[in-house]
Amino acid sequence: MIKNLSLFFLLLIILVILSCEKNSKEEPVYKPTPYTFDIPFAFPTKMNIPVNNPMTVEGVELGRFLFYDGRLSGRTHPDSLMSCGTCHIQANSFEAGSNHPVFEGGFVHGLTGIQTQHVMLPLINLVWNQSGYGWNGFLFNDNPNTNFRNLEDFVRIAVLAEDEIGGDTTKVKQLFQSIDGYPELFFKSFGSSSITFKNIEKAIAQFVRSLVSANAKFDRFLKGEEQLSSSELNGFVLFTTEEGADCFHCHGGGGNPLFTTHLFYNNGKDTVFTDLLDRFSITGNITDKGAYKAPTLRNIELTGPYMHDGRFSSLDEVIDFYSHHVKWSEQINPLMHHVLRGGVQLTSTQKEDLKAFIRTLHDEGFLTNPAYSRPDKFPDEQ
Amino acid sequence: MKRILITLFMAVSLVSCNKNQSKQETDEGNIIIEINHTVDGKQLETDQMIYTNAAGNKYLVSEIQWMISDLKLHRADGSTILIGKEGDIFYIDSDIPESMQLDLGFGVKSGDYTGLSFTFGMNELQNKSLRFVNPPESFMFWPDYLGGGYHYMKLNGKWINTDDVAQPFNFHLGIGQVYDTLAPKSSYVSRSACCTSAHCEGYTPPEKTMPIIGFIQNYFDVRFEDTSFSVHASKSTKLQLEMKIENWFKNPNIYDHNIWGGSIMQQQKAMKKACENGIDVFRLTVK
């Protein structure tokens, strides 16, 4: 009996091993490589990565294909291709840029021709944003509505939105299922070659989280590797002093090299607030009327037009605004404490210095990093 | 299968053993300090222009963010116990409800205490730039040009100024500066040419725009010498730390926003007065 039993077990084990081997011969093994971040100098160590979407090398790679593949519209006709990369262009810090041949002045519109409600935001260092995505922060981690929480949701929203890709999630996933090469990449990233829209969201979100800018002249200055010119240094002092240009409380500085708090402020552009998509629309807090996220100032010279409505087309106009045209309203954020003089009153030299400093936040490596760029070939072309 | 079960069982019993042991041995309890921002004895209502300070300024408060360090418990024999480790800070933010409860953790020796003390802000050894890279603490950074480190406090609000307009004030405290009052005007850092702009004709640049030749530490100690409380093993003792906002503007210095204006990070005279007033801003009670 005992003999028989052990024989039986032996057989069983052999059987199991055999069947395992068979499997592994038929399908590639699912063994994703964890994606590691080198936290740049002075950057936060806490990142906004949901537990159900850990970053992997394979996921980021797949995300990059999808981000740039025009078939993300769910269509294949050359006129109806659109992807994230159609609007979010690397050379312009992932905005369209005011010099765009199709999106005149940098005002983007969807496949249907409908213009977006607000102008663009750059995709840069978003993995460190803990307070909310979008101009009004409508996506945030502890949102009771679980469909509006993180970058994964932005993918779905961008694909569905009439003023963006205007697609259909079912069609999109079916299309990618039928394209050679993609099912395999999905398997490598998520362990299943049957494509779900959730996994499309996850892959693109991983790619967007991988976009890091931390090697501007100012970063090297902060690390003591490079000096700033005297005009840039003056600009830095202006940027970080209340009696200067007073930008740092909202836009960061030496102690906050993201150059944004990702928080929301009314910065005094208007006296009447009619936009239905301001911060107030999210919080219902009356003091949030006319408030929007203070965007990062990294690569800012490339991401015009400026402010949520694109009212300023140049950095000079923005600086003039903060200098002389700030308007008082009940809702103005207290940090805009120069308001009763109309602004911070910079002289023309000071404006030049401030601009020179802001340009030290230009990160050429980010704009040309091959890991972030449009792939030469899509999976079915390899 | 059986083996797995046995291993599991052992693991479970080990874990539970551990728990039992530490429970038996411990004579440590916890302290939870609830933070309370008040004005004139009542809970702060943000963004309501309903307060009047000792100088007669009507004002509102939008938000308060502050840091304390060197939190210590005092005993009758004069000894003190540092909470956490050297350099630990507590960050408190009226916009972040979780930050309004300081949970010191189970690690406080049980027994009787006679008081508590902390540093408002941080001392010069601890107040170093880039200590905190994560928000919200990192958002408190104090520019290196002005002395570096971190804001001890940002108290933001508005007051009704002499023109009857609600003017923003940023009551920000941190390292102060010594300005070179003899420096030539050409070396002034900002606003030096403001006199030429239409907005400020006849304007003489104030001290705060002159070159900086030194820094002044403005942190101060807050001590509650005779507030007795006890900590019991495995129990939480609740204390309440109240910030009486109106007292920042009251004693010994009457602080008038019309005199100091909207921003004081570069006005050591104002910060000095404010920090002196810090003496009776805090109140500790046992709940």
What does this structure look like?
The complex is a heterodimer of chains A (382) and B (287). By secondary structure, chain A is mostly helical. Chain A has helices at 2-26, 57-68, 84-87, 151-160, 169-178, 182-190, 197-209, 217-222, 230-239, 248-251, 280-283, 315-324, 348-359, 364-368, and strands at 264-265, 292-293. Helix content of chain A is 35%, strand content 1%. A two-stranded antiparallel ribbon of chain A has the order 1-2. In chain A, α2 packs across α7 (197-209), α4 (151-160) packs across α7 (197-209) and α9 crosses α13 (348-359). Chain A is globular and about 65 Å long. Chain A starts with a helix and ends in a 14-residue tail after the last helix. With 287 residues, chain B is mostly beta strands. Chain B has a domain at 29-137 and 220-258 and 278-286. Chain B contains 3 helices and 18 strands. Classes of the chains: A mainly alpha (382), B mainly beta (287). At the A-B interface, α9 of A face β11 and β12 of B.
Keywords:
heterodimer, A: 382 residues, mainly alpha, Cytochrome Bc1 Complex, Chain D, domain 2, two-stranded antiparallel ribbon, 2 strands, B: 287 residues, mainly beta, eight-stranded antiparallel beta sheet, six-stranded mixed beta sheet, 3 helices, 13% helix, globular, disordered N terminus
Q: Label the CATH architecture of the largest domain in chain A.
A: Orthogonal Bundle
Number of strands of chain B: 18
Provide the helix percentage of chain A: 25-40%
How does the major sheet of chain A shape up?
2 strands, antiparallel
How helix-rich are the residues of chain B, as a percent range? 10-25%
- Determine the strand fraction of chain A and express it as a percent band: under 5%
The separation of the N and C termini of chain B measures 53 Å
Q: How many distinct domains of chain A? A: 2
- What is the mean pLDDT of chain B? 88
Give the oligomer, counting copies of the same chain as homo and different chains as hetero: heterodimer
Strand percentage of chain B: 35-45%
The overall strand count of chain A is 2
